[in-house]
Amino acid sequence: MKKKLDVVGKARRRVDGRAKVTGALRFADDLSMPRMLHAKLLRSPHPHAVVEQVKTEKAAKHPGVHLVLTGKDFPIPFGIMPVSVDEYPLARERVRYVGDPVAAVIARDEQTALAAAELIEVSYRVLPPVGSPQEGLQRPEPRIHDYGEQGNIHRNQAYEFGDVAEALGNSDLVFEDLYFYEGNTHLPMEQQASLAFLDQDGKLQISSSTQNPHYLHRQLARVLQVPEARIRVLATPNGGAFGGKCDPGGHEFVVGKAALLLGRPVKIGLTREEVFYVHRGRHPVLMKMRTGVTKDGMLTGMHLQTLLDGGGYGSHGPASTFYTGVLTPVTYHYPRFKFEACRVFTNKPACGPKRGHGTPQPRFGQEVQLDRIAEQLGIDPAELRLKNLMKANSLTASWLRVGSIGLEECIRKVTGMSGWKERRGKLGRGRGLGLACSTYMCGAGVAIYWNKMPHSGVQVLLDRSGSVIVYCGATEIGQGSDDVLAAVVAETLGVGTDVVRVVSGDTGITPVDLGSYSSRVTIMAGNAAVQAAERLRASLAGAVSETLGTLPDRVVFSQGKVYAAEDPSRAMSFVEAVAIAEAALGTLSAVGSYSPPKPPGKYKGSGVGPSPAYSFTACVVETQVDERTGWIHVPRIWIAHDIGRALNPTLARGQVVGGVYMGLGEALMEEQAFRRLPERLSGALVHRGPSMLDYKSLTSLDMPEVEVALIEDPDPNCPYGAKEVGQGPLLPVMPALANAIYDAVGVRIDEIPITPDKVLRALDSKEKRVGPQTFPAVPYPQPVFVLPPWEGGDGKEVKRDAAPAVV
Amino acid sequence: MKSVHLRLTVNGEERELLFHGYKTLLEVLREELGLTGTKHGCELGECGACTVLLDGAPVLSCLVLGLECEGRSVQTIEGLARGPELHPLQAAFTDFGGSQCGYCTPGVIMAAKALLERNPQPTAQEIKEATAGNLCRCTGYNQIVEAIEDAAAKLRAEAK
What we know:
The structure holds 2 protein chains of 2 kinds.
Chain A: H1 17-22, E1 37-43, E2 49-55, H2 57-61, E3 65-70, E4 94-95, E5 101-107, H3 110-117, E6 121-126, H4 133-138, E7 153-161, H5 164-169, E8 173-181, E9 193-198, E10 204-208, H6 213-224, E11 231-235, H7 250-262, E12 266-269, H8 272-278, E13 285-293, E14 299-311, H9 317-323, E15 337-345, H10 360-377, H11 381-388, E16 394-395, E17 401-402, H12 407-418, H13 420-423, E18 431-441, E19 456-462, E20 468-472, H14 481-493, E21 500-504, H15 521-548, E22 555-558, E23 561-564, E24 567-573, H16 574-585, E25 588-594, E26 614-625, E27 632-642, H17 649-668, E28 674-676, E29 685-687, E30 705-711, H18 733-745, E31 748-749, E32 751-752, H19 756-764, E33 769-770, E34 784-786
Parallel strand pairs in A: 1-12, 7-34, 8-32, 10-11, 14-15, 20-21, 27-30, 31-33
Antiparallel strand pairs in A: 1-5, 2-4, 2-6, 3-5, 7-15, 8-13, 9-10, 9-12, 13-14, 16-17, 18-26, 19-20, 19-25, 22-23, 23-24, 26-27, 28-29
Helix pairs in contact in A: 10-18, 14-15, 15-16, 17-18
Chain B: E1 3-10, E2 13-20, H1 25-32, E3 51-54, E4 57-60, E5 73-75, H2 88-95, H3 105-118, H4 124-130, H5 142-159
Parallel strand pairs in B: 1-5
Antiparallel strand pairs in B: 1-2, 3-4, 3-5
Helix pairs in contact in B: 2-5
């Protein structure tokens, strides 16, 4: 029986809120056990070298040392994606970046482990490092890995949806632009930590700051050769993650192995410097975009080329490579679309998924180019976007099914809030407004490893006490996943979140959920939780309907009461209802599962990009640029996010402002950049500053006021209509800032970050631009050719010759 | 390694301990006293996560040696609540979304407490200045400022 919402949509203290403000919440490094030992890793000082010998005798004899591990102890590699299993917990024959772990010492305390690690003698034969993808393409030998497409190319892919050359040829105008997006890192406040031990039954248990306990579980079993059923992974609450705790880390295998060998608890906590080396952050991406338009501003097609700097290992790279293309045609209708993407190995820390995974880079280029197109055609940038919006419930040229779209309302909202029409171009020299839009997935449609099982499972348990326990493998990384689960279950059962306990992220006792990545928890774990709770509600309704003198489907559950819809005075408490049902039916528990819908695309590679729903965002940035110093001040940002429904508006707004913050940091200053030491000092590639002082991020003083609008149009694929909000709001900030700077001082900064020196250089330049000048010759393969839905395609690859001529 | 003796007051209780003299106040709190509510994000004085109050003044406990605290008084996040009731700063941080992952939260709250003790009615700008040394990667700071403003108002009302 439908009722109005009691919990969902109401601002509420999050269920784990109290623990976070009292210091009671236990993060991984807060854990300690009797007889616990401490591990430290020895890391490579070379970006690229053959490991010829590792001598550990002196370290092993050091007083207080219990164990020394090297690559020899780990013959089996790991990798989060089955196609990129290329990494060892401790390097064996080769090190591939400064910071690659080579050996580990387990000792009575950290000081002893650190001292002993210095006694390990490693002989390296230094190899020439590859510093950039351009260099990697030019110099295929020596190969960084002995797998991949060719030379140092890790992944190379090309897709074409309709004949793009023809579309561009028939366009009134074709815009060709180059963009570059520098890499940056997650910088979670919590450094990774793990504690492993053998439980009372001798099973391996590991508490770790991971976003993906399920994937870590699988990888631990593989690398340590222990059956999965004898390993329990507990994801401790993450002190921020942002994608940086998705990959298993060498340190997790090291403490696991050490605990197995020593039979004692072993803990490791990474230093801040080590966190910069573990990285897995934003890929540096060079982009070339060719976009066709008609004179009246209708997009005709896009040809997008990307070149990714992958770093030393595969990580999520195959997916990242796809993501530099696949979500580009989701915001606007491109009748034809082609993208080519290439990821090259380099001798730097591996890149991987960071908030927005692979998509902020092309979104930056796309949205800056649209600004240029609008200017050239004399169309307002907001109007140009509105003209080309994707339609709700339609397919992209690349066969992504896009359901609800709130982007039009987002654009209208932010242009209204910012006074776009009245103020843009009228703020005076040095001040400007810029607009940009974006979209993101609500969960990846396909699991990281191929399987037909659900993406999320939830079990809900009730008993006569009236307490509700929700078990789910989803991981609380600060985003509020426990609160989402509590909210949707409480709403469905008509109770308050105060009687709900969420047990999450524990592979020993919770049903599998794939993890906290790809903005999937609200939709996937949320849907599974709703299903479980609905099943329980149906059981309760059936058990109490007679007592209430009504039919089961007329029983209402609301605010701790259970009553007949036609006569609310025929009522009982939720606790009484549970007791009646428990007496009638026995122990009360139900499970729910969620699997995303099958994607309509049938070509190889069509599994990356589909999602049950997409969120949309529009953003206006205001800026003041000092033309003497290049200093960029951002006083205000307006952002509207199509969230479907805000389950807890306080948390939703927090995700939006947090996304804006991280996007603005990337836009203005965050850089995971490297420099080459002088030849006399080895010529090695080193991190420019693996510390929080050198890696600049916004402080409270740099952060503008952010005005947030949540656009709520419930999506039928999502629990109570709620779409994602964790990643989407970051994405439009960088291009909106670039466009605002152009509006302010008339220069195009076609690369991220946008720093004062670049603004000054652009002001001094003839072309009033700073950005990449050339795009290298990349040996992209023949594209997989698929006809768009409106050209008679069926979602499968067609041989180019067989494609019917387009009239 | 030789142990040293230390006597200090932590959250109003006198504590006496023997520990390795190289340990920072952060390590003394977390490892010797089991007060893991104080976090660390860099152990180099860059992030503010380990902020505690030393004789009422905010300090980065990773940059203070335990030995420097002889006879002094330390306040940590664990000592803030009033019995079972949250301190207004704690309540506001969670009710206004000033705490997401919660890792920087103890440090920011302690910095805010020091601010409100010397300036019960700070402007937003003064709040931002007082917490500028506390990095937060989740919130974007807006809701932290709102939380501190709310707590300040509640504390002023209490003082009346």
